[in-house]
């Protein structure tokens, strides 16, 4: 229970990577504030499950992270020792065809929300002399792919924001790092694989290998639980001098 007494706020934690990070931090003793969209009964069930399994408090904040006022209010109320900016959305189109409203929405949720959350969280962390900021950046914060202008631009910006915070907070006891996952096998990705296999009449293993090998030398998905374990490490004493770092968990994607 290395994080007992700490409060962790994880945005976008009602499913996928964010949920795995919340579970991992709770398993180390941190009280959790979940955030994200989803069915109210399911969220209540997840809260009860995590609290019961880990012996911690699990709250839920329904802030819309595309709204700066709601982000700031949520963070100030939670007063987190650990802030994980994980919420994100995607939209795929060429630059020439990219809808303006989708660009604005991606920048708001994937980049600006993290800025507003960090701005609200940092003073409390500095006052306590300890804090961990972890940004889920993705490989697309380090390299690009076609037809993902909004996502790539936002994630590159988030990587830059991570580095600025690391420099500013270097001697305050607060670190700021980025986890950069490649392909992660979330329920949403699994559903996409299943649908594509059914639509094309091909074996699931064939579809999976084709998707992975397009980008990753290692034809293997990362499990969400592995991302959670990296987040726990970044909160540990062993990582006290790791700051401003992109931690790639990507099967060799950016090594090419």
Element string (H = helix, E = strand): EHEHEHEHEHEHHHE
CATH 4th-level superfamily of the largest domain: NAD(P)-binding Rossmann-like Domain
Widest beta sheet: strand line-up: 3-2-1-4-5-6-7
Number of helices: 8
Q: Average pLDDT value?
A: 97
Q: Any idea what the CATH architecture of the largest domain is? A: 3-Layer(aba) Sandwich
Structural class: alpha/beta
Overall CATH class of the largest domain: Alpha Beta
| Percentage of residues in DSSP E strands | 5-15%
Radius of gyration: 18 Å
Largest sheet: 7 strands, parallel
The CATH topology of the largest domain comes to Rossmann fold
- What's the count of strands? 7
User: Can you tell me the overall shape?
Assistant: globular
**Percentage of residues in helical conformation:** 40-55%
Number of domains: 2
Q: Could you list the spans in which at least 5 consecutive residues all have pLDDT below 50?
A: none
What report would you give on this structure?
This protein has 256 residues and is of the alpha/beta class. It has two domains: 7-182 and 223-245, Rossmann fold (3-Layer(aba) Sandwich), CATH 3.40.50.720; 183-221, no CATH class. Helices cover 48% and strands 14% of the residues. It has helices spanning 16-27, 40-54, 68-78, 100-128, 149-168, 187-200, 204-213, 224-234, and strands at residues 7-10, 31-35, 58-61, 82-85, 131-136, 174-181, 246-249. A seven-stranded parallel sheet has the order 3-2-1-4-5-6-7, sandwiched between helices. The longest helix has 29 residues, at 100-128. The radius of gyration is 18 Å and the shape is globular. The model has no long low-confidence stretch (mean pLDDT 97).
């Amino acid at each position: 229970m290395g994080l007992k007494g700490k409060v962790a706020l994880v945005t976008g934690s009602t499913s996928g990577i964010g949920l795995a990070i919340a579970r991992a931090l709770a398993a180390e003793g941190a009280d959790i504030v979940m955030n994200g969209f989803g069915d109210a009964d399911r969220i209540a069930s997840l809260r009860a499950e995590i609290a019961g399994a880990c012996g911690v408090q699990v709250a839920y904040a329904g802030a819309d992270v595309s709204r700066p006022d709601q982000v700031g209010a949520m963070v100030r109320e939670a007063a987190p020792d650990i802030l994980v900016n994980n919420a994100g959305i995607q939209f795929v189109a060429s630059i020439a065809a990219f809808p303006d409203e989708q660009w604005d929405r991606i920048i708001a949720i994937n980049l600006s929300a993290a800025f507003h959350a960090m701005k609200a969280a940092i003073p409390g962390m500095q006052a306590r002399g300890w804090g961990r900021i972890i940004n889920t950046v993705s490989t697309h914060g380090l390299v690009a792919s076609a037809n993902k202008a909004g996502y790539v631009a936002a994630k590159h910006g988030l990587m830059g924001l991570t580095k600025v915070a690391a420099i500013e907070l270097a001697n305050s006891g607060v670190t700021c790092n980025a986890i950069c996952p490649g392909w992660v096998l979330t329920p949403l990705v699994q559903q996409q694989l299943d649908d594509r296999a059914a639509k094309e009449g091909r074996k699931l293993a064939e579809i999976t290998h084709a998707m992975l090998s397009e980008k990753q030398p290692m034809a293997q998905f990362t499990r969400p639980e592995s991302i959670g374990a990296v987040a726990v490490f970044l909160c540990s004493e062993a990582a006290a001098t790791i700051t401003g770092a992109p931690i790639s968990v990507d099967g060799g994607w950016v090594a090419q």
